[in-house]
């Protein structure tokens, strides 16, 4: 948590994740001050402005304002590189919603540009700031369940977007890029770097097109560790709520988390450890605030980022490998840096 004056920020993009995740986080985050919001849809920007008290501004006005030191980019995925690059060129630090971009080439361009401008570029993999997943990472590090051998992660929801929404399109990447990247990042964070990726996908809802709306991905991590991920927008409308489940099987026990049922359980050699969290779904809202506070501290030079932009690009790489696997019907190897 930074002790410096609050960093003036702007939220660019007031759609689903911008409105439900990013905008509310500014109310409780220490070290940042939301000065402006922007969206191509004026009514969406006005709605967020009414809730937060921040001014409604155009992107050009935001980038020209010296009082705004950093931007929170929550635009559609295919616009991440363009908007982030513009912000970096204007001398703004950038927190961009995951995934970093839609291509490894675009990710590399942003990483290089941020380094050249001596600016912070951070990617919003918010699970890394959720206390439940932080606890899981700590339990694994402490050896509570022995050596991890198998992980299963599911991220499921009904996507409440129209058939022509960007999320369904090829450039948007469908469920694999939007939700599957959470799975890939959790696998990399909790278990390590996968060496192979194999994926299959299905087109279930009529809105789903090129990338499908239900994906299964198998990650190989050497000879003795496997992770299976499921990312779905195919659940019925009445289901609606976005939630996940996670199970990590180790040589001495199991870590189990199900958003819809309650908190983290640790099943170890000595039995079942009682719950430690309340039953909240998806990402705990405070994680978005923690992410902003961390971003501010990185900008202030007080700490190093939990995850570099280059590391976040490797989660994108895993998703792109899964997409290649869907097309070829074969496993795809992941070797070396991006």
Give a structural overview:
- With about 350 residues, the protein is an alpha/beta fold.
- It folds into two domains: about 5-125, Rossmann fold (3-Layer(aba) Sandwich); about 130-285 and about 315-335, Dihydrodipicolinate Reductase, domain 2 (2-Layer Sandwich), CATH 3.30.360.10.
- It has ten helices and 15 strands.
- It has helices at about 15-25, 40-50, 60-65, 80-90, 105-115, 130-140, 175-180, 180-190, 285-300, 310-330; strands spanning about 5-10, 30-40, 55, 70-75, 95, 120-125, 150-155, 195-200, 215-220, 225-230, 245-250, 255-260, 265-270, 270-275, 330-335.
- It has a nine-stranded mixed sheet. A six-stranded parallel sheet has the order 3-2-1-4-5-6, sandwiched between helices.
- About 50% of the residues are buried.
- Residues about 275-280 have low confidence and may be disordered.
Residue ranges: pLDDT <50 for 5 or more in a row? 274-281
Q: Average pLDDT, to the nearest integer?
A: 88
Rg of Cα set: 20 Å
> Any idea what the shape is?
globular
């Amino acid at each position: 948590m930074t002790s410096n004056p609050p960093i003036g920020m702007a939220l660019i993009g007031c759609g689903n994740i911008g409105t439900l995740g990013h905008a509310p986080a500014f109310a409780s985050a220490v070290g940042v001050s939301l000065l402006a919001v922007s969206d191509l849809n004026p009514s969406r920007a006005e709605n967020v402005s009414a809730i937060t008290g921040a001014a409604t501004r155009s992107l050009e006005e935001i980038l020209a304002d010296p009082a705004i030191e950093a931007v929170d980019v929550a635009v559609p995925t295919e616009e991440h590189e363009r908007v982030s690059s513009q912000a970096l060129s204007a001398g703004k630090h950038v927190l961009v919603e995951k995934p970093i971009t839609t291509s490894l080439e675009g990710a590399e361009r942003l990483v290089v540009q941020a380094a050249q401008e001596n600016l912070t570029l951070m990617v919003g993999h918010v699970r890394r700031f959720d206390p439940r997943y932080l606890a899981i990472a700590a339990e694994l590090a402490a050896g509570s369940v022995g050596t991890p051998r198998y992980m299963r992660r599911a991220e499921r929801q009904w996507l409440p977007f129209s058939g022509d929404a960007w999320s369904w399109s090829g450039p948007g990447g469908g469920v694999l890029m939007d939700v599957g990247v959470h799975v890939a990042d959790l696998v990399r964070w909790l278990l390590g770097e996968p060496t192979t990726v194999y994926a299959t996908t299905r087109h279930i809802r009529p809105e789903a097109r090129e990338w499908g709306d239900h994906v299964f991905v198998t990650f190989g991590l050497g000879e003795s560790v496997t992770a299976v991920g499921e990312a779905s927008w195919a659940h019925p409308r009445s289901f609606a709520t976005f939630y996940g489940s996670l199970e990590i099987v180790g040589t001495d026990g199991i870590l189990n988390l199900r958003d819809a049922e309650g908190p983290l359980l640790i099943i170890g050699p000595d039995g079942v450890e009682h719950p430690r969290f309340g039953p909240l779904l998806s990402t705990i809202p405070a994680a978005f605030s923690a992410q902003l506070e961390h971003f501010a501290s990185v900008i202030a030079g007080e700490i190093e980022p939990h995850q570099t932009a280059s590391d976040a690009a490797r989660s994108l790489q895993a998703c792109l490998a899964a997409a290649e696997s869907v097309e070829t019907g074969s496993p795809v190897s992941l070797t070396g840096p991006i």
